[in-house]
Write a structure and sequence with these properties.
single chain, 112 residues, mainly alpha, 43% helix
Length: 112
Amino acid sequence: MALMPSTESADDTLRAQVRKSLLEHKLVAGADRRPAVVVLVLVFLFAAVLHSYWLLLAYVPIHLVLWLATRRDPDRCDIYLKYRHQRDYYEPRAHPVPRNPRPEGFGRGRLC
């Protein structure tokens, strides 16, 4: 029994159907899910501990800021979480080669 060569080309064998929902970020009312849930839980805890449930209204402007940030760049929160530990060393004298420069767009080359 001999194996017959496949009539499909190499491009056809590498095709796979990918659902768009698997590539998109998970959102809660237009804002990134993780920071929106964290802020909602923190606001709810503050309101419950202080017995001031009108503090729940503080979530609305915070969520709007998260929504605007997510609308402009859906990866913004992930990028910040990845690079938040990467810092410049601010010293009074200049060094020729920085040890750990910040990524582009996060204040690299700017004075504090």
